[in-house]
Fold these 3 entries.
Entry 1:
Amino acid sequence: MKTILHTEGLNKTYQLGSFPRTIKVQALNNVNLSVASDKPVIIALVGESGSGKTTLAKVILRLIEPTSGAVNVAGHAVAGKGNRPQHNEFLRTVQPIFQNPFEAFSRYRTVDSYLHETAGRVAGLSKGAAVDAVEEALNAVGLEYKDVRGKYPNQFSGGELQRASVARALIPHPSLIVADEPVSMIDASRRMIIINLFLALKQEYKTSFLYITHDLATAYYISDYIAVMNKGSIVEFGDAKQVLSNPQHSYTQLLLDSIPRLDSKWVDHR
């Protein structure tokens, strides 16, 4: 089986304040997570705010350096020890989708210019091939190129702009897309459009997703595996159905107990 995501002894410590009154905050505490599969998967990373989910995402995306430990994605050492790929090679391996799409695009640039830049600079495509790749990615997320071309971020709804973010991430055909709370800023009525899109794209593009959320219901619906995070550590990991129907850690049970539902058992409707 192929390694999709592997973290080993991952730690991140922040030092707050100034000498002599400094405080050390352990954002990641010996995070060990290993997922291998012969087919693309969706891994949900769940936990309350402040549990370390976004810090882990930032380390995987090389936005911050870990204090110690290592991260490997699809055979590439992306953080910590090992020969790490150059920036564009890295972006062909891992792509981000951020929480707020309006912060991912400058209001002074057209949205399609970002997509063309990704196709040319990151994917290394010629001008003609880049146009085809942008159109293909937009079509995959339910958008038409003619409806995106020349438009600025404020001319889109939040859901439309997030779909454009997904299209941008798809262009280099990465091994892993890290989606950090990708539907939390979108109207509730539109959230399932993005969720179902991830399920479809996993098969169409053969891309795995790390879906970061505090919402156990969508995590259960979308994921093959679930990792539960608390106080900077992975406290439980396994098959999504197994973890949520038969939790082994008290924190996982606490998260489940906080969800209002009609029956006492999780029912698989997938």
Entry 2:
Amino acid sequence: MKEYLKLVDTVLSDGIKKTNRTGVDTIMYFGYHYKVDLAKGFPLLTTKKVFFNSVIRELLWYLKGETHIRNLRKHTKIWDAWTDEEKNWEIGKMYGYQWVKWEKFSEDPKTGNIKKTFINQIDEAINLIKNNPNSRRIVVTAWNPSVIDEIALPSCHAFFIFNVSNGKLNCHLTQRSGDIALGIPFNLACYATLTQMIAQETNLDLGEFSHYINDAHIYENHLEGLKEQIKREPLTLPKLNITKKPFWELEFEDFELLNYKHHPIIKFPVAV
């Protein structure tokens, strides 16, 4: 994907050095934005191998709203660095929990009792797309200030917005912080998949994915791998097939990646 390689090249050329909580310095670029046309192929990087199975496992984990990785880690260990067995693999009320179980509190005016209910933001978004596609309020947020101190990692991909134009479903993601080597390829594939799932559910064609990264950064121990990657020529994008069934009934086996050709894997260490 040329859009991704341009992101890498921009940060390498114009970024500034910054320190951060991990102890591994970064080269950071403020406020990077790009778009990809989802109708032209599934945007899984071809200049290195990206583990598509882990992308789908992670997305389905988000949609379950779990506050732990005990089930996820049976299939992929991509979240193991953020918790451990001593913590019973808990990560708190992060991404998926906020997507599908946003807590709402209301007071009974007669008794003063506080009632807690839950908002499934994904369902709300799907219903708006179906019933009011011109709405500019089709927003899902994972950023909940009330839980920041209780979760393993404050949500990097903070919120996303759907837009319907000319019978096509577009998705915009605003990301507060983006690890270009490891995180961004997964984020891109994850939201492209989610958009395709919802487009199928709402009988819309695929539009564009728009991505704004507030702090787009490259860790210094990722520099050599990314410099190698931008030398590689992008290959034809693969295609994603999703079984035609109701959104909430989709399972791992319902996702089929076709014709994924890629350059060799490049390993990058995780900065925690």
Entry 3:
Amino acid sequence: MSPQSAPCAATLSRSSSLDQVAGLEPALAGVENAAVFEETRRAVDGSAHTPLLPAYLQQTYWWAYLHPNAVWVFERQWLVNLILWGNFAELRDAALDEIGATIDGSILQVACVYGNFTEHLAQRLTPHGRLDVVDVAPVQLENLKAKLNGAPRIGVHHQDSTDLRFADASYDCVVVFFLLHEQPEETRVQTIAQALRVVKPGGKVIFVDYHRPTGVNPFRYVMVPILKSLEPFAMDLWNKEITDWLPASVRPAHIDKQTFFGGLYQKVVITR
């Protein structure tokens, strides 16, 4: 899709995401945290604006996330796994296992994900659990709603990761799965700050993303031209730690880091 056609995706009605939220009310009847869900809905309904597609997204990733055919091309589990050199399931499960086998609380997923990450996350929800997913691209939200096929206790929201429309300390856990490498540094700093803002004290923010591989990892040399040509912001994660972008005011209770596939990928868990 040309850059000129990318803004067309933004014309999709904001009301569709709000309808998705409103349609969940019957499923939440009798759920103990329904009041929290209602507060979340009011926060979204009260939003005074529809987020615009960021310039970097239109210029750099239009082909992957905004083009009308992008979903048709990339929403294939085998392809997502291939892009991650066969590591998708391990990375997905590393993030989900950090949350637990069952989810009784509130979870926020920042940005939609190709592949079955969100479906596996949703499967862990108990009748008392709740999942919200935000994304700035309407085409990605529509794709996610199709994949979830009306699954209960899930809200899908048209929001920018740098300006989340949720109250402070709203969630027990926040998951950011392969988003940071797609954002320029100034945007990445805001995304991390917002994720930390909306998580409750004692809650976790889980990041899974690229990382500088070890010197003996042959993929180190394969990935450099790939990332520089297709993922121009990803090299930041080779040169800095995710914790380097934490707000100065944040004092985490605990930080845990684990690397995978010879250091090419990482999971960083920040406990507030």
